[in-house]
Amino acid sequence: MDRIYLDHAATTPVRPEVLEAMLPHFSDNGYNPSSVHAEGRQARAGLDAARERTAAVFGCKPREVTFTGGGTEADNLGILGVARARRERGRHVVTTCIEHHAVLHACDVLREDGYEIEVLEVDARGLLDPDRFGAALRDDTVLAAVMYANNEIGTVQPIAELARRARARGVTFLTDAVQAPGQLPLAVEELGVDLLAISAHKFYGPKGVGALYVRAGTPVAPIIHGGGQEHGRRSGTENVAGVTGLAVGLELAEAERPAFAQRVGGLRDRLQAALLARIPDLTVNGDGAPRLPNNLSVSFEGLDAEPLLIGLDLEGVAASAGSACAAGSVEASHVIAALGLPERRWRGTVRLSLGRLTTQAEVDRASGLLERLVAAQRTPAAAS
Ligand code: PLP
């Protein structure tokens, strides 16, 4: 039987159109865009085209797009780069407790450098209160980083409102939008953000390629030093094949966004309804908050996620946990912990994330399988 991939929040496979667009940049056009000869100029044209196409999706100028080696690097560049460049104004940074480690660990580096990092809590649905956010901003706040959509529970933050409050206080606002492309609008003017980070492998592009939108006039100190590529923001010979893949994947994701939200959102709702109808004692994380259409994070009371995921895998379904498993123990992920679930619930947290090719037959098979596996795993515990 064919396998069912329900882990699109972890990564997505490169789609054929993206691969096709990338291939010439490995061969016939595989030159260095900084070379002055004809081959180099041809490679430069490919790089410029990818930047223009990416900028068109963001609704910004091409110069405001910096290509990076992935989402983690885009987040690190934005956070470390802005905090260091604005050091004269102050050393206070505001973020949230449900950010990806690419943000939280970059903030740890700043903390070691003497910055004060204020980590705001979210409510039980995973949402940040704009008033709480506004109240945390100070005269010496240089940067606020709030993710657009959460990678574990899919909650979508009110970014436009948060960005408006930050800008009113002169605070540079970054959003980690790595989970957003193809699911949420990316128009940076409407969002009002100063920086926005994306990663190609989350929207059917290649891994190890990302982009950071940086609003014109926002100071960003580079974190990678060398030949001064990417307008001095990110040195290193440009990955023309990779950024072409990013641009094409992004364009397609944006063009298909309304249809994706409707079709895949409908399948997610069907899966959620089936689980709620068939399995007692489960929590849908992020329920009641705006959520990514493809995300379903569920906590099954009274069991551990790990054996459940192994059972799913053996039966052909790839999913992932909302908790980190270390040898012999399961720890709550920082995101699930932030929701305040009791341990008997968070231990059984599973993330199912759908994709553009997910079918109704697949979600129906997955829900039937989950019903069977959860019942089987609950039985021995109930008997003991
Ligand atoms: N931010 C979020 C919200 C993510 O989901 C991820 C990837 O899992 C990242 C950042 C890191 O991106 P990358 O894997 O491209 O380094």
Q: What's the short story on this structure?
A:
This protein has 384 residues and is of the alpha/beta class.
Unreliable stretches (pLDDT < 50, length at least 5) are none
**Biggest pleated-sheet summary:** 7 strands, mixed
Adjacency order of strands in the biggest sheet: 2-8-7-6-5-3-4
Strand content: 15-25%
Hetero groups in this structure are: pyridoxal-5'-phosphate
The secondary structure category is alpha/beta
Give the overall shape. Answer: globular
Total beta strand runs: 15
Number of H/I helices: 13
Helix content: 40-55%
Commentary on this structure:
There is one protein chain. By secondary structure, the protein is of the alpha/beta class. Helix content is 41%, strand content 16%. It has helices at 16-22, 38-58, 71-85, 101-112, 130-136, 159-168, 188-191, 240-255, 257-278, 305-314, 334-338, 343-346, 360-383; strands at 4-5, 65-68, 92-96, 116-120, 141-145, 172-176, 195-199, 210-214, 282-284, 295-300, 317-318, 320-321, 323-326, 329-332, 349-353. It has a seven-stranded mixed β-sheet with strand order 2-8-7-6-5-3-4, sandwiched between helices. A four-stranded antiparallel β-sheet has the order 9-10-15-12. A two-stranded parallel sheet has the order 1-11. A hairpin with a 2-residue loop joins strand 13 and strand 14. Helix 1 (16-22) packs antiparallel against helix 8 (240-255), helix 2 packs parallel to helix 8 (240-255) and helix 3 (71-85) packs parallel to helix 4 (101-112). It starts with a strand and ends with a helix. The relative contact order is 0.16. The model has no long low-confidence stretch (mean pLDDT 95). Bound molecules: pyridoxal-5'-phosphate.
